[in-house]
Amino acid sequence: MSYLKEITQEVLKHADIVKIVGSYLPLVKKGKDYKAICPFHDDTNPSLSVSPDRQFFKCFVCNTGGNAISFVQKYEHCTYIEAVRKVADLAGYHPEGLDSFKEKKPTDERREAILKCLYDLNLYYQFALGAPEGKDGLDYLESRHLDASMRSKYKLGYAYKDGKSTINFLQKKGHSIKTIEDTGIAKMLSPGNYADMNEGRVTFPICDADGNVIGFSARRIRPGDEAKYMNTPETYLFHKTNVLYNYHIAKDVARHKGYIYVCEGFMDVFALSRIGIDAAVAIMGTALTNEHISLLRSLNVQVRLCLDGDLPGQSAMMKISNQFAKNGVNFMVVDNQGSSKDPDEILNQDGKEALEAYLNKLISRVDFALNYYLRSNPLTTVEEKKKLVKDFIPVLARINSQLELDSYLRKLERITGFEIDSIRKLVEEYRLHGSDTQFISKRMREFHPERKALERLVTAERELLYQMMGHELAIAYYEQRVGVFYDDIYRKIANYLIAYNEKYHNLDLSGLLSEIEVSDEENKDEIVIEVTDIAEEDFHPTDCTDELLINICDTIDEEKRRINEEDSLNDSLKGKDELEKARIIADYNRRKAMKK
């Protein structure tokens, strides 16, 4: 990865973003920058700005921004490496080693050999389920209400307890040990001696989008110390980050029905199938990835999120709903908060009509999130509460019903403790300035209803951060005088600036954005937006002097002390009666007045 970063920096040095963007869009020079119709939203007036000085682009309507590489990646919907290669071609620069990063593609021979082996293996498992030894597995599946038609539909099977027999069978079918190892089911007992890792378990084949078996999940039949499920490890064909269980069946049905359910496990998918709903997939206990989201979004249907009603399930739904919203997925949430039953349990205990009613109780992301924070997972920090408000202001601003809006605002007030009028004011400002994303972003960063004193602190931190983007002197003052910003996003940007300057000994903004975009940072998109926002602001002093930096650092020190004192005061008031609170506050005010 470090070598890729070095090549990326070299490509950016040789690329002119005006030339790169201009090869895709007609640009018009406006002052020192260039303007264009933004391709990333339904734009009618030129809202995309391209800066040749800073080598980055920014749309102040949809907030998309970045450098030449990120523009190409977003415009062509390609991988990062493909975008780097495309920019290098457009720049007429071909660094040595770039071609070595071409995506690896499996040869047809190897792929076909593994698929054929897995096909034979799954037939063997299905045969074993009907054999005398497979009766325990058959009894288990029948106890889960999976009849012959369901077992056939999903190709369920059983792995013999003698795992060596599976290996012997596959070898007799002409499959080499290397190919058997490539399937992921072979465990080595001793050199040259292998057994089936799924031995003694019922098997659930996992298929790719075309219906080819690429792996297995195998469940133990009786209680024991071993893991309940044994899953195929990462193999040449099986990568859990881009596989959704039952997608090969669900995709065509979903396109016809107009929806698809996202469930937690196999049994949930089976439960929905038993009542005639085949448009359902399972995430199999793994985190939802960008590849999973791409699979779902490609169907162009409503996604219905249906995980368990317990706290872990609700937390997962909260995380996934945020991922869906961020990626523009059309989705609703099954309202199961407070329910301890999953779909399989509802069907078995309460019947088909109960499960249908459960699945059709759909609510929006806003309703789900507000209920989640009210009932299941109260927010504890001011930053968490501010982020929740920030996330939902654009959504609330689009609500036309005053009664509905008031209901949401009251819930937000209960969750955050912020006054309803403060939140309502932000909604009104968003409605007035919704097309001016830079204004709204700045206003949200200044939103501190819990402490008005923070406005001065955040303004000072933002000023210092702007100076750090262009001056090593400002970075030195930050490290020596400030150390850590109060604002979490500002703190992360400062860390990236320091690391980039130490590594490359310059403050190239385009290169900095590239470093952020190839990082593993969870909220890197938000950081990129903030960097480009600050860099585009034109109200900061242009001369970075010692006097300016000293004044900024003094302000930050002063405001941090004030906040710490207020925090200490609030801590000292906890658990005290009213008389004691009055005494503590009076003493605090007296000491504060003496300092003046």
Report on the structure:
The chain is α+β, with helices and mostly antiparallel strands and 596 residues long. The protein has five domains: 2-101, Zinc finger, CHC2-typedomain (DNA Primase, Chain A); 108-236, DNA primase, catalytic core, N-terminal domain (DNA primase DNAg catalytic core, N-terminal domain, Alpha-Beta Complex), CATH 3.90.980; 247-374, Dna Topoisomerase Vi A Subunit, Chain: A, domain 2 (3-Layer(aba) Sandwich), CATH 3.40.1360; 379-445; 454-582. It contains 27 helices and 16 strands. The strands form four sheets. A five-stranded antiparallel beta sheet has the order 1-2-3-4-5, sandwiched between helices. The radius of gyration is 29 Å and the shape is globular. The two termini are 54 Å apart. The relative contact order is 0.07.
List keywords for this structure.
596 residues; alpha+beta; DNA Primase, Chain A; DNA primase DNAg catalytic core, N-terminal domain; 5-stranded mixed beta sheet
**Biggest sheet, strands in spatial order?**
1-2-3-4-5
At the first level of CATH, what is the class of the largest domain?
A: Alpha Beta
Largest sheet: 5 strands, antiparallel
Number of strands: 16
Distance between the termini: 54 Å
For CATH, the homologous superfamily of the largest domain is named as: DNA primase, catalytic core, N-terminal domain
How much of the residues is beta strand, in percent? 5-15%
CATH architecture of the largest domain: Alpha-Beta Complex
